[in-house]
Every structure is written in structure tokens, then in C-alpha cells.
Design brief:
Blueprint: E1 2-6, H1 10-21, E2 25-29, H2 33-40, H3 51-60, E3 64-67, H4 70-75, E4 79-82, H5 97-109, E5 114-118, H6 126-141, E6 147-151, H7 161-166, E7 171-174, H8 178-188, E8 198-201, H9 203-234, H10 238-246, H11 267-280, H12 286-299, H13 301-310, E9 320-324, H14 339-349, E10 353-357, H15 362-369, E11 375-377, H16 381-385, E12 390-393, H17 405-411, E13 416-419, H18 426-431, E14 435-438
The structure holds nicotinamide-adenine-dinucleotide (NAD).
Residues 6-12, 29-32, 35, 83-86, 98, 101-102, 119-121, 154, 156, 158, 265-266 line the site of nicotinamide-adenine-dinucleotide.
Length: 445
Amino acid sequence: MQVTIFGTGYVGLVSGTCLAEVGHRVVCVDVDQAKIDGLERGVVPIYEPGLEPMVRANHAAGRLSFTTDAAGAVAGAEVIFIAVGTPPDDDGSADVRHVLEAARTIGRHLQAPAIVASKSTVPVGTADRVREAIAAELSARGVGIEFDVVSNPEFLKEGAAVEDCMRPDRIVIGSASEASIASLRRLYAPFNRNHDRIVSMDVRSAELTKYAANAMLAAKISFMNEIAGIAEKVGADVEQVRKGIGSDPRIGWHFIYPGAGYGGSCFPKDVKALARTAVQHGHEPLLLHAVEAVNERQKGHLFELMLRHYGGIDALRGKTVALWGLAFKPDTDDMREASSRRLLQQLWEAGARVRAFDPEAVREARRLFGERDDLVLCDSDHAALQGADALAVVTEWKQFRSPDFAALRRTLGDAAIFDGRNLYDPAEVEAAGIAYWGIGRGRSI
Ligand code: NAD
């Protein structure tokens, strides 16, 4: 099928590439000329495992192209996806400005009947606004072309986006039109072979499904962080508690890891936006507010542990902290709302210096922070430790999991580890002569 995708970010680029991989002809449109020029030359602007070779192969095969020319891209498309960003507005609601701009662009250039499907995460009711925006443009042109607006929320995870796209758990299609659902079934058939993963529903339920999924996952994280806070106070180890509850199949093992708080471009903004939608419709979102509040507190917790270790903020002045991990989670270079950013600010405000390393996010950190005296961006985990007094770990990259604690003991001036992802066994660290501070590990506190 002939597909056009507006937005070549994490969602648009990965979805477009995966659709091309199974044989569709895909045109990716973006307003960012530099990004499009780079992609045409084979430069992939984000890190996603497996993505770059797939982009290059499909581009070379002529199934995947990149353009800023929306008119040409819209003209021949059977399905047009909107996958542009929906950042948080000042009041926490999702800013759908880019989505509506893409809709107007579609309306200005549509030449033949098409399905417009939103992959962007948008508040309930946005599909109606997209429909109105397209209709207004068509009527301004004095033409009547049939189109349908469908909600097709995206569930891929950064860090495993290609894998998620090629083998989705489910494909949610929100539409009242049997014909549109049938067309999207045809589009997704190559991803839907061994059992039916398509869940079709009405448009509003599909829009809400995406928020419900992310809010549930964020709630699980905040719940565990709440338990971790209690564990710390009562002298229990949340890692033992995690194993004790995860074995209950009604609870399960996924997403019950305590840590330095959730970040990224989705959970924080989606929980806020859902809460905002609830308030706007007269429902008080008590649980969503609590999920957010716990996460806000949690992002500052590693620094709290440092204050406890050093006996106050003054002792941190002049210290050098090695920071392992900058991305909001492993296998991505994305630092949007990453816990590392809060810790960096707190350390800088306390007068400490940071030597940071991340396998993929160093370039992004350089773009965000530029040159500053109190930050050295290092090219290896080992380099970050040189001259450091303590080590803080905020992203659970695999390569951080088994350090040589005896060597760390010799390198770290104050022999202290602040483990924001509970990667290490406190007893093993302490046996090496290093003070261990983890999340919810009352045993050692
Ligand atoms: P992103 O910020 O990485 O990319 C958005 C792209 O859209 C940018 O390249 C931007 O230049 C482009 N754009 C903006 N306005 C445009 C326009 N009018 N026409 C064409 N292109 C335009 O965003 P993302 O992370 O890919 O997220 C996109 C949407 O998908 C958001 O609503 C997000 O909530 C949702 N989502 C994201 C993820 C994720 O893991 N990143 C997962 C599921 C859903």
C-alpha cells in the first residue's frame, strides 16, 4: 500500500521503516529540513537498536523516502499517519498544535480518498478536531474528497522500538468505519500473522487506551517507589519485597522495579495530560496526581541519599561524582525528562562536579548542556571514574551491571556508590569496602 507519515521522530521513523520493510511504499514527511536531508543521505538522527541498517536498506530499495514536500507526499497516499510530537502545554495538557497543523496540511493537499490515522498520543476528542481541520481546508478549496480519521495509538517502547513494531502485542484501531478497519487490517497483515492482534473499537476508547496503558505502567513504578520509601524507613529491603510479590501471577514481574523515578517523552507528559483531561471533564484524578507526586519526589531521592551519606549539602561542595547513565532508560539516547537531569542540577547547585558517561546519550547531553566547568562528558565508564569521589548510577545499561568493586574501591576517593537502579548486591559492595546506598534497601541504612 502507499503510505505517508507526518513526523520522522521515534514513532514516525520506526513505523515508516517497519512498514517499508514488509513491502509497503512509505513516504516520511517532516518540517525539519536538516533531518530530512540527513535521512536521505542515510544519517539516522536517533539511536534505536536495528534501525539504521533497516532505514538504509529500505531507502536503497526505493520503498522508503524522505521529504519536506507535503503536497507530493499526500497526493498519492492511501493511508496517511500523523506521528508528530504532542509535548506538554503549560497547564499539563497535551499540546496538539503540531497534530492540527499536520491535519490542515493534509486538507490542503488531499487529491483522492484516504484514511488519516493518528499515531500521536492525543487527548480524547482530538480525532474530531483533526476531522474538522481537514474538512475546513477541503471546503476552502471547494472540493469534496472522502476521508476518514482513525485513532491508531502507538505502543512501541524506545530502546526496543523496531522489535515492538515488527512484533506488536496489539494493534489498536479506533474507527466507526468497517471499511477503514478493513484497510488498516490489510496494511498490518504482515505483522498480524500467527494470531489476531488487532483490537478494534470506537475512536474515543482508542484515544483513551493509550493514556490508560501509560498511566498504568507509571502507576506500577510509583507504587514500587512508594513501597521502597517505606522499606527504607522500616529497615526492609524492597528487592526482597519485589521478589515476594512478583511471584504472584496476579501481580507479575514486569514494571515493579523501584528506582530513581520514571522519565522519557511519554510517561511524565501522558500522566499529566490524562489528569488534565479528567479535571476538564469534572473527574478528580486522585490516583494520577499521586503517581506524579511520588515520581517527582523519587527523582530527588538519590541526591537525598548523598546528603545523608555526606551529612549535609556543604560537604558536597568540591566533590567529583562519576555518573553512569544519562538516558532516561537503557538502549536509547533520549534524555527527555531523564532522572539524570534532576541529579545533575542538584549536584551542580551543591557545588559538585560531574564526570558522566552513557553508551549512547553523550552527544545528546552535549547538545543539552554545552561546555561547562562542572561537567565532563566521558567516552567510557572507566574514564568517568578517574578522579571521582563517588559513583552514582541512574540508567541500568547492561555494561554497568558487574563492575570490578575492588578496582572501584581503589579509584573512588570517598568509596561510595549511589545505586539509583538497585543493580548491585549491597553485601558484595560493602564487602569490597565501599559504602552502598540503593533505593529502598533498608538493610544497609
Ligand atoms: P519526536 O519529537 O521524536 O518527533 C516528532 C517529529 O514530528 C519531529 O521530527 C518534528 O519535526 C515533526 N513534526 C512536527 N510538526 C510537524 C508537521 N506539521 N509536519 C511534519 N512533521 C512535523 O516525537 P516522538 O517521540 O516520535 O512522538 C510522536 C508522538 O507519538 C507523540 O504524540 C508521542 O506521545 C507518541 N508516542 C511516542 C512514543 C515514544 O516512545 N517516543 C511511543 C508511543 C507514542
